[in-house]
Amino acid sequence: MNRLSYYRSISVTGLFARRLLLCFFLVFATYNETGQSYYDWLIGDQTKPTSIVVLFGIALLCAWVAIVRAAFLALRIRGIVAMLGLFVALELLRIGLGLRTTHAMFFDVIAVQIIIAVVLAAGLTWAPAQLRFSGERDVLHFPP
């Protein structure tokens, strides 16, 4: 009754890297400071066909709902709060060491987007990692 033998091929670091790339794409495709995002496409030039903009908007919304729901089911609220607390502590350390400049708002937006992507990727990776580490069959905890 060795349940782990089926899941030995799961590489947690490779899985996290792939899901981190997916989350980076989702976060930065929705909004970024360079002007090459869905947000800028939506509020920018009004000569484009609105059906294409709506189609991509619905696709992005579906991706956001699926990824946020999967991350929430894997980490639950305590895990998400713990991860965000860790990132707040790292930001306070950065401020305390004098590494944060007040003139670089561009980098602060990127830092927040990176934090969002890392939290989502950790949530997407946690269920398969817990399955690999513990051998549990049901690792997603459904909300009440």
Can you characterise this structure?
The protein is an all-alpha fold. The protein has one domain. 71% of the residues lie in helices and 0% in strands. It is built from four helices and no strands. The chain has helices spanning 12-30, 38-43, 50-96, 105-134.
- Distance from first to last alpha carbon: 32 Å
Number of domains: 1
Quote the beta fraction: under 5%
Low-confidence stretches: none
Overall shape: flat
Number of helices: 4
Series of secondary-structure elements, N-terminal to C-terminal: HHHH
**Tally of extended strands?**
0
Biggest sheet character: none
Rg measurement, Å: 18 Å
Structural class: mainly alpha
Features:
71% helix; mainly alpha; 144 residues; 4 helices; flat
Summary of the model, kept short:
The protein has one domain (10-134).
SSE blueprint and pairings:
Elements: H1 12-30, H2 38-43, H3 50-96, H4 105-134
Helix pairs in contact: 1-4, 3-4
